């Protein structure tokens, strides 16, 4: 039976739309409603309409501060490591070695993040790198349960998510553009800034968004490598929902976190659009 284009569109988008509404929109709406409520006498949620939970967000400012500092810092650190690696594998390594090296990048994903975090606890603990530095006469260092340890775990855990979008963008790069830039007398650094980097920006944007959004809700890495001294909003939410059983306050924190994420992503995408528009204007000139 022939179907109209509109019906075909609904048939294609309907399942994904229902899945999106059931597993994202409705839970967020429920959390939003809870955020205006109060804590029950024995915990949980008590219906009400008050802004007291939002007014009390300052009591958990440390969690927001750690998240808003370490999540962008981890994203930038992962980008600074992933981009040169992706550039080297996509444009410099021969095809016979490329697959092997890419597999080595994927290998950490073959094991649980829990096991990898325990490995870093040992490496950064008193019997790991600090003991080695101390034996070399470089002084006593404390690495575990510090922001540095959390940052290391973040970069190590999320590096592949940053690497692969950038690698795909660079791997699809037309090498003839680089050759043309060289023929026109452009030095390698100018070819990189005016050809390679602009054409790889979609991969940079995708990788940065993937890593940043996931880091804003991170729980396990701060819990294990921060040792309860460096905690994110995700750790505070676990405490409020499962231990303190203050669902209203936890919902207010979750709504605030989502709002901050949406604001940051919107500003970032606007920044990228301006860069793209400026590049197009230069190209037209």
Automatic annotation (TrEMBL):
Listed transmembrane segments: 12-36, 69-89, 101-123, 143-168, 199-221, 247-269
Pfam families the UniProt entry points to: BPD_transp_1 (PF00528)
UniProt keywords, alphabetically: Cell membrane, Membrane, Transmembrane, Transmembrane helix, Transport
KW Transmembrane helix (keyword) present: yes
Compartment list: Cell membrane
Tagged with keyword Cell membrane: yes
Domain of life: Bacteria
SUPFAM superfamilies recorded: MetI-like (SSF161098)
Domain ABC transmembrane type-1: 64-268
UniProt record similarity statement: Belongs to the binding-protein-dependent transport system permease family. CysTW subfamily.
Stated name of the protein: ABC transporter permease
Organism: Paracoccus broussonetiae subsp. drimophilus
């Amino acid at each position: 039976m022939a179907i109209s284009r509109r019906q075909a569109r609904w048939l294609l988008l309907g399942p994904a739309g229902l899945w999106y509404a059931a597993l994202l929109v409705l839970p967020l709406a429920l959390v939003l409603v809870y955020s205006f409520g109060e804590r029950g006498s024995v915990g949980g949620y008590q219906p009400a309409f008050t802004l007291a939970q939002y007014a009390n967000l300052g009591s958990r400012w440390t969690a927001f501060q750690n998240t808003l500092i370490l999540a962008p810092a981890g994203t930038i650190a992962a980008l600074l490591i992933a981009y040169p690696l992706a550039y080297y594998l996509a444009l410099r390594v021969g095809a016979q070695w490329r697959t092997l090296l890419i597999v080595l990048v994927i290998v950490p994903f073959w094991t649980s993040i829990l096991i990898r975090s325990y490995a870093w606890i040992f490496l950064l603990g008193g019997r790991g790198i600090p003991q080695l530095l101390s034996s070399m006469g470089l002084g006593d260092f404390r690495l575990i349960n510090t922001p540095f340890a959390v940052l290391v775990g973040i970069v190590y855990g999320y590096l592949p998510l940053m690497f692969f979008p950038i690698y795909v963008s660079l791997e699809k790069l037309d090498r003839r553009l680089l050759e043309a830039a060289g023929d026109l007398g452009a030095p390698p650094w100018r070819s990189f800034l005016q050809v390679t980097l602009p054409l790889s920006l979609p991969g940079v944007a995708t990788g940065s968004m993937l890593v940043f959004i996931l880091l804003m809700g991170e729980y396990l890495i701060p819990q294990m490598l921060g040792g309860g001294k460096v905690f994110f909003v995700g750790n505070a939410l676990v405490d409020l929902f499962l231990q303190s059983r203050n669902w209203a306050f936890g919902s207010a924190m979750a709504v605030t976190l989502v709002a901050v994420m949406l604001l940051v992503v919107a500003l970032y995408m606007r920044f990228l659009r301006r860069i793209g528009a400026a590049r197009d204007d230069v190209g037209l000139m």
